[in-house]
Amino acid sequence: MLALSFVARILSDLDESGKRGKGFDRDETLDGMPLLGIALLIIGWGACREDPLRALGLSVSLLVRCPWRHMFAVWAAAFVMNRAMQEYLFRPDLRCLVDNGTINPGGTYLALAGSGPVRAAVVGAAMTFSQTFIEEFFFRGLALLGVAGALKHFGVPAQAAVTAGVAASSLAFGLIHFIPMRRATRGKRTLLPWYALAAPSGLGATFCVLNAMAGSLWPGWLVHWWLNYAGFIWSRVGGRWERVAGAPGS
Q1: Is the pTM above the cut of 0.85?
Q2: H/E run at residue 157
Q3: DSSP H helical ranges for the chain
């Protein structure tokens, strides 16, 4: 499934390159997610000294152990909260940032901006699948285990080390959302960057709890995938990013 997702990203990238007719020149932006995913898997092999997917519980047999009701509840609550925040509380701030082209909808939306609804739905599912894998594999996998392992090496009790790993990886996940939003809103009086820090950090910690319930990386990855894919479909149907997607340099 992961390999097919990477292939879908590559084919979509090549298709868009062909439509633009520019070739692979310096103005071209290539999708680096497949290369990044492969690099992280190689690092995972070295860190885990075995198949990193199996080491993190990503086997098909462990899917049955996922806490599906809890996962759906987290997804529904997070999706509704995010939509409410964006559509009501932060709507003026976001509209301003969208109108001036300061923020864009991300690689999946831009890559499929000119696609029909069926292709967008299918390829969008594949692209968000691999995107969320890379984030979960790094933050809830390698980063969490790395911090916990380092602390245990220095004599920190196992439970405290894991808790610190959860906190550190969740904060780091929040920061990669906070920093770009902080830069985008520099000079503006808005709480949007702090929401961009708090929401992903809280979700990251929640994903860790779900993963612990199943002994696997599956729960957090699947909920993360559902959230990103649902957000992509929501934005696609609403068409709120169409002008940004067609803007030069977006």
Answers
A1: yes
A2: none
A3: 2-20, 33-48, 52-55, 68-84, 91-99, 107-111, 117-136, 144-153, 158-184, 192-214, 218-238, 242-245
The amino acid present at 7, given as its one-letter code, is: V
Q: What is the pLDDT of residue 24?
A: 35
CB neighbours of 118 closer than 8 A, spacing ≥ 6? none
Express each pLDDT in 162-193 by its tens digit: 999 999 999 999 999 999 999 989 888 889 99
CA-to-CA distance for 189 and 93, rounded, in angstroms?
Answer: 9
The single-letter code of the amino acid at 246 is: G
Q: Are 241 and 104 in contact (CB under 8 A)?
A: yes
Tell which wins on pLDDT, 20 or 234.
234
Phi–psi pair at 105, nearest 5 degrees:
-80, 0
